[in-house]
Every structure is written in structure tokens, then in C-alpha cells.
Amino acid sequence: MTRRVLAIQLRHLGDVLLCTPALRALRRAWPTARVEVLTGEAGAAALAGNPDVDAVVPWSPERNVAAQAWALRRRGYDVVLDFHSHPRSVLLAWASGAPVRVGFRKRGPRHWLYTHRVPWDGAAHQARQKLALVAALGLPVDPVRADIRPIVAVGPEDRAWAAAELERLGHRGDRPLVAVSAVAARPFKQWGVERWAEVVRRLRALGCDVLLTHGPGEEGQAAAVAARVPRVLWGHGGPTVPRLAALYERCAVWIGNDGGPLHIAVAAGCPAVAVFRWTASRGWTDPTLPVLAFDRPPPQGCDLHCSRCPHRGCLAVVAPAEVVAAAEATLARATACASR
């Protein structure tokens, strides 16, 4: 009998991408299982073409929870892996009727709705945490040693589009190409337009072509940076996740705010330099991944409630010159490796 498995990660593109190493491990352990993922529009975009996923089950915060639960129950799942482990996702996992329900042990009594509970470790990389849920099924998965590079399914047509788009935007092949993601879905993750503009100016002075990237609905943030710097490459529209990964494959380094594009760059094999708010990098960086993180405490003090922070001092203490110096060092290493 074919196992039916549901993985739950309701929202956030980056969080869904960080599920992909666990989904890959699950596919390797259970190659004949039918694996479905319950997620929203951004998650569906991140999983487009993923070979380890048989289907995406659409989720919407506007949909009635009871109706969603009943729809899941009718699909007859044997196993649910709740990568999200949020109050709403816990209820959906329980309501699915799956005899095996795996999730994280967090605050409050909600985790008792799982049959298998895994301790939550906020200091561990999120992808390794998600792999621990797969290991809890008794499968041969080592969360500590497993490959945690995210997976984006980039096809030949995506790479052809990226090559044509860069030519259209005016990229010169004899200049290093640096991607800058100066956008953020949440205001408290935004380093600042003026700082990003200064980074782009300094990269241009080093002889780099700079590609400003953004997703749907983020054009305004990218445009604000482009307006302050001449001869920057941008205007590609909001590409699909595979097309954005194809662009990043052609870049020597990626620089940006904490967010989904960082994980797309890592999936594309592009070395990254990221500006994080204080302590946030712990769950998103790992020694095995090519990510250099700026993560500084604010001089004003911090209560770790970023959404209500009045100063964002942890971001302000990071200087554009430091970020560019890190990118320049990354470029030098890449050039040295290519010449060997």
C-alpha cells in the first residue's frame, strides 16, 4: 500500500524552501510514498517542479478552518509532518485523522495533539530542525550531517530566460555580476534604502554590474534604490522562483536582507552576504552553507520583539562599507577558485 504523507508549512516562501531538504530525505527513505504539501501561494511558487513533491494542497488564511480540516480528512493521510507547528497547523494536523502526526514540542499544551513530538531548538538551523521531524519517523536521516541546501527546480527554459533577460538589461559578460536584494516583506527586516544605494555605488566603483532583484509587489522598494544609483540592472518584473534562481546562478555573489531571496540564492549555489536583525541569523545560517551574516546587538538594547522596535538599531550599526568589503572578499575567493 502506498503511504500518503502530508507536510504542513502554511506560509513564508523562505520557510517552505527550508522544508525541501526534509522532503528530499523523506523521498529517499520512502520512494513510493505520495507526498503532498499544505501551503499558501508563496509556498506553492517555491515548490514548483520540485521532484520530491507529488502535489501542493492550497491553503489560505481566509478559508474556514473547519472546511479545510474536513477536506484534509477526506484525503486519507497516513502521516502528517507539521513543519510549521503553529496553533492553526496543529489543529489541521490533528483534524486530518492521520494515525501518525509529527510536530515540534513548543509552548502550551497544543503539541499533545501530535503522536510524535520533537524538541524545538531555536539555535539550530531551521532546515536541520525540519529534518528532525523526518528522523522521528524512525527513518535513516541524520539531521546533523544531512545536506541542508534548499532545492529550487530550475529548468533549461528558466536558464534560457535568465540569459536573455540579463542581455536585455545590459549585463556585460566581462564584469562580475552581483545580485542585490534590497527588499523585505516585513519593515523590521529592511536595512534601509540609503544604505542599499550606497552598497550599489561602491560595487559599481569596484567594476561590478549590479542586478537589483525583487518579487511580486516589491517593485517599489527596488525602484527606490534604482532611482538613487545610475546604471543599475533592474526592471525584470517579478519572475517565478525558478527564474529568480536562474538569475542567481549567473551571479558571483548575492547581497540582501534576511528573507526568502537569501534561501533562493543558496539553492542556486550563489555565495551570500546577508544583513540580519540581532540574533535572527542563528536559525538561518550554518557552517555548511555559503552565507556570511551580519548580526549585531543594538546599542539601545533589545527586547527581541522586532515588530514593535522603534529604532532597528541592530540594523543601523552595520555599515555599507563592511557589507561591500565582505562581498569583495567573496568575489576574490571565487576568482581564485576559478583560476585554479
Question: Can you tell me about this structure?
Answer:
The structure is a single chain. The chain has 2 domains: 4-135, 3-Layer(aba) Sandwich (Rossmann fold), CATH 3.40.50; 156-339, Rossmann fold. It starts with a strand and ends with a helix. 37% of the residues lie in helices and 16% in strands. The chain has helices at residues 13-17, 20-29, 41-46, 65-73, 87-95, 126-135, 156-169, 193-205, 219-226, 241-249, 260-267, 313-316, 320-339, and strands at residues 4-8, 34-39, 55-58, 79-82, 100-105, 116-119, 177-181, 209-212, 253-257, 272-276, 291-295. The model has no long low-confidence stretch (mean pLDDT 93).
* Name of the CATH superfamily of the largest domain: Glycogen Phosphorylase B
Order of helices and strands: EHHEHEHEHEEHHEHEHHEHEEHH
Write down the CATH class of the largest domain: Alpha Beta
Mean pLDDT: 93
User: Care to count the β-strands?
Assistant: 11
Class by SSE composition: alpha/beta
In CATH, the architecture of the largest domain is 3-Layer(aba) Sandwich
Shape: globular
Terminus-to-terminus distance: 52 Å
Q: How much is the radius of gyration in Å?
A: 21 Å
Count of alpha/pi helices: 13
Strand order of the largest sheet: 3-2-1-4-5-6
